[in-house]
Amino acid sequence: MIGGEHMPMHIASTTFGALLGAALLVAGAQALAQAPVVIADGGRSDYSIYLAKDAPPSVAEAAAELQRVIAVATGAKLPIVNEPAPAMICLGDNPETRRLGVDPAALPDEHFVIETRGRHLVIAGKDTRADQRTAQGGVSEGTYLGALEFLERCVGVRWLFPDTLGEDIPSLKQLTVAPLAVRDGPDFAHRALHSVGGRPEAKAWQRRMRVDAGRSAMRLSYNHAFHLYGMKDALKGRPELMALIDGKRRPVEDCKNDYLSEMKFCTSNPELVRLYADALLKAMDANPAQTMWAISPSDGAGWCQCPTCAATDEPCDWPGAGGNKSLSPRVFDFYNAVARIVREKQPDKRLGCFAYAAYNYPPLKAMEFEPNLFLMAASRPYYGYSLYHPVLSDEFNRLVDSWDERFHGRMGWFDFSVYVGPLRCSVGAPYPPGFPIMKQIFPKVKQKGWKAMFWAGLQVNGYGALSNYVAAKLCWRADADVDALAAEWLRRAYGPGGEPMGALYALLEKQLADYKRSFKVADGQLYQYRCVPDQVRAVHLPIFPQMESLYREALAKAATDAQRQRLEMFGDNLVILHWHLRKAGWLKTPETSLFHRTDEDFRAFAQKNYLSPSVRCVWKTPEEMLVPKLGETPVPVKRQE
Ligand SMILES: [Zn+2]
Question: How many A from CA of 265 to the centre of ligand 1?
Fold first, then answer.
């Protein structure tokens, strides 16, 4: 790789690229003239990790993480110091960093440099202080991000999934850093990998994978928000402002679930718009630091049927609309009306809003959109792997282009396309990574220059870890090589067992894709993003023997305890699935399977594992795992997500 004077590994060739700061690795002439830097050798090091005494907390966190991982990898624990040392990893913005010729303040938010300078290694990025926010309301922790990049690139650590077992740190006799000059930053200013769990270990993993939404440069607020800003009180005694449903207006006092259908307004009523905008302005006064405020309607249906509201609804010929009318005009009329009022008093605040469900598609009627709106496209028809379907896959490109024409430069993507909520049918059925879908979405969103990426991961670590890892990587570099990332993950996680496991994931991917393609686009099963018995019968049951055979092969090939344990995380899901298939009477010779457990053994398995991250999704007690959910047994239906 190093051999010329300037060897750009990846230079953005399009106009938006420079703006987004695509990866740039340059082995410059100066760096080439240097000898490699040996940071640790034979368990010893004369290096220190230097940072300023008053460095921001994220820089101190970077120092601690460098110290921890380098110690595990090399056996040498580098001291963390506040005075320059003869040989040092110089962290963050400080006089020494500047003396070495690096000016982190000149970098864009969340960007960093990693450079060898003589014996020293400089890792420095744009950092916000503890009390400081970026212009987009978030934080910039460039030095911390650079430290993580160094640990992955030069030490070789991989954070495969949350928990200790997911951290893969190689043992190094010598830690040598070839002369290098790296300058990098993320493709998206807001990166959220959602649904991977609220456990501290999962939070720590999100942070290391650089997809903790609260720690990126752009802070967003765009979710369902009709119940916020004191509206429940403001609407008391004002039923005329609520949605008209079947001839009646339900008073706000009767709303049980704020987030859902019940909390819908008569949005064509100017008094309602004024009331909402005033409530929002009051909330803004109380919290001046917040730069973006959500104004999206509550989730679900329950739209006002009054003649004025209904008058603007349009016929919609996008395939994903399934023949239903589009309510986009009424919703975007409401957004616009609120935005105009708010802008008079708060010209700098942005209002975050969805394009979603009944208001997923751009209005047919000619409309201008107020400049203080920020749009998150949350395309409900693409949830639950439906983008395997060629008609929707084609529609996705047109939808992105179409919204971008209207909201260019102030948009983000909100994704549940590679997601299955296991609640409705928590039977251990594994779901595939969704790589063909990721390969379509991430580069397209990057190409449009959209700033925000919200990606719903798979909740169950045992089979979802690979998908979550690759999605996290794409949140940083949207056009990274998905197949290469996946191949490396499989090798690092399962060792020689990675090859048959790759075949297993691909088998699942093909089986689910064929199933989704078998539906007509208007069929609700295509958008089903919860695991349901029919799907398990069609997708998982026919390939169960093949999955078992590939899994056995992988287990036989696994070379270390860690590789075996990671495989068993997947296998535990198949133990659960096997029990449910057996209880449904869907297996001919259940007792021949590796995953077969007697009822007594399965009860013990449930006791032991119902909270295990490998299989964990919905069970609050072991007994809940022991309720058969396939076959003729009625399936308990509860709302989730
Ligand atoms: Zn109405």
Answer: 7
Secondary structure (3-state) at 422: coil
Sign of CA dihedral 224, 226, 227, 228: positive
Identity at 12, one-letter amino acid code: A
Residue 249 has phi, psi (to 5 degrees) of -105, 120
CA of 313 to the centre of ligand 1 (A): 12
How far away, in angstroms, is 369 Cα from ligand 1 center?
Answer: 21
DSSP letter string, 464-486:
HHHHHHHHHHHHHSTTS-HHHHH
Report pTM.
Answer: 0.93
Give per-residue pLDDT as tens, 350-373.
999 999 999 999 999 999 999 999
Please, is 579 exposed, middle or buried when counting C-beta atoms within 10 Å of its C-beta (0-12, 13-18, 19+)? buried
- How much distance in Å is there from the Cα of 282 to the middle of ligand 1? 25
- What distance in angstroms lies between residue 517's CA and the mean position of ligand 1's atoms? 38
Kindly give the distance from the C-alpha atom of residue 266 to the centroid of ligand 1, in angstroms, as a whole number: 4
The pLDDT tens digits of the residues spanning 460-504 come to 999 999 999 999 999 999 999 999 999 999 999 999 999 999 999
Residue 58's closest CA among 102, 112, 99? 112
d(C-alpha 470, C-alpha 485), whole Å: 6
Query: Could you tell me the distance, in angstroms and rounded to a whole number, from the CA of residue 414 to the centre of ligand 1?
Result: 28
**DSSP single-letter state for residue 536:** I
